[in-house]
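User:
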Amino acid sequence: MNAARHVVVLKGGWSAEREVSLVSGAKCAEALRAQGYRVSEVDVDDTVATVLAELKPDVVFNALHGRWGEDGCVQGMLELLRIPYTHSGVRASAAAMDKPMAKRLFHDAGIASPEGMVMDRHALGVKHPMSPPYVVKPVTEGSSVGVFIVRQGDNAPPQQIAADNWAFGDAVLVERYIPGHELTVVVMGDRALAVTEIVPETQFYDYEAKYAAGGSRHVIPADVDAQVYQHAMDVALAAHQLLGCRGVSRADFRYDSSVAGRDGLYLLEINTQPGMTPTSLVPEQAAYLGISFGDLCRWLVEDASCAR
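Assistant: Predicted structure:
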């Protein structure tokens, strides 16, 4: 049955996460071919709509990461072309990528997220916007691109943020730094899979720690209190449903274990198109539950639809 279905894998693109997307896309295409699908790979540029019209796929596997591919733009194009596609639709993709918007939605739903504010990046060079430690990040980037931790004792925020070559927009999100553990939960359809603790070998879980070999160590299942473990699973699923996500998403948390009970758990963000590289967390959690990479990719294709 699969051989009759033509899947186009979208990868690459022009966001800051291009290189990661190329790896994710190549791995997913390889796995889908092994599952019996007819697969075409497209390195996305501004001719993508024309290319898709020529290829006439049955399904698009969206392996793009970052802006344009993960923020609702490509999803809107695919809706107009009426091509079923993997992962979340326009609204969920846009809401999740807009970190301040997502934080407001989490707050209104009673989901704990670090206190924060949006400000112009040029104003950061004047004085600390809050007492260190705090985190500065672009409002619409993923994979920890452009993220800085300002620590106690630092005289000022990092000057790179106000530099002329800053490529991530003028608005930045400043939020309180939560000490402790880095946790993540994958949601697949209507269930949370597991809780992984990420132990970075770099200063924090930055782009290098995420994608470089040996950049981090993953502990699955995370060695945390059972109540905290279950709460992380529950919050990840609730946030997935709150934003209207589809397919697979990944919820990233910080957990301050010095706080009693589950009150030290804070949701940072939802990733609607998590990485699918050899070091990525989604395939790892799926494998932990006995789901092979090929089966995971096939499930995403069979789950694909047009849904705003």
